[in-house]
Amino acid sequence: MFIPLHDANTLKHIKVQWVTLALIALNIAVWLLTSLESEQAAQATTVGLGYIPAIAFGHAMLAQGLEIVPEPLTYLTYAFVHTGFWHLAGNMIFLWVFGDNVEDAMGHLRFLIFYLVCAAAGALCHGLLTMTSEAPLVGASGAVSGVVAAYVMLHPRVRVWVLVFFRVPLPLPAFVPLLLWIGQQFFMLAIAPDGDVSWGAHVGGILAGAFLILVLRRPGVPLFDRQIVTPRAVRNDPGAGPAIAAGTDGRTAQRFPWGRR
């Protein structure tokens, strides 16, 4: 439906989103290491770190030598394994755009706990819907879905630049694309529960994120902000070039969302 590009939501409580950056770096590192392996070794990594419902619910066992971590840990490790560049890129773009403000609302440690619990909730929901499946579930989309749910509950009116249908860049209030995206996950779960995409993991992450933001956000951090924030200029220089135009208040405003202040 869309690709998020940038939001104009500045950090209020932390200087740097260290946990978000570390999670992105770890996901990229695991993907790079897996990409360097032979096809057989990469498949073994997917099986050994992925979440397999049939094993989690006692309907099957891994062959000897394939287990990399104890089975309970696969509720988390699956979220750091991706099967291809675009699989990785899609999840990391969402985490990059929306993760910093959710981390800001919680603090570093609480956000890390939040992310991991959303990942586990995604795996659990997927497993409950496909208990006998022997296909490994991999990818950060369950955890990232929780981040999206938390963001739209915190900042529904913040304007987000999105690339609609991979072609048209538009600045929209966050609730427009994000609620459409969340609705799509529930709709696809209803009509295609056994497809190649685990809509159940997405829904599990969304439900966990919506609940956890209620209890993990900092004291005093409000839900459902009411102010619409428009993208701001990185520089306040009237002569900076065609990307800068005069705003209604006499200051300069940037037409395109390159960077944040």
UniProtKB/TrEMBL annotation:
Keyword vocabulary terms for this entry: Cell inner membrane, Cell membrane, Hydrolase, Membrane, Protease, Transmembrane, Transmembrane helix
Pfam families: Rhomboid (PF01694)
Main location group: membrane
Subcellular location: Membrane
GO molecular function, one term: peptidase activity
Biological processes, Gene Ontology terms: proteolysis
Record domain Peptidase S54 rhomboid: where: 73-218
Gene3D superfamilies (UniProt xref): Rhomboid-like (1.20.1540.10)
Name of the protein: Rhomboid family intramembrane serine protease
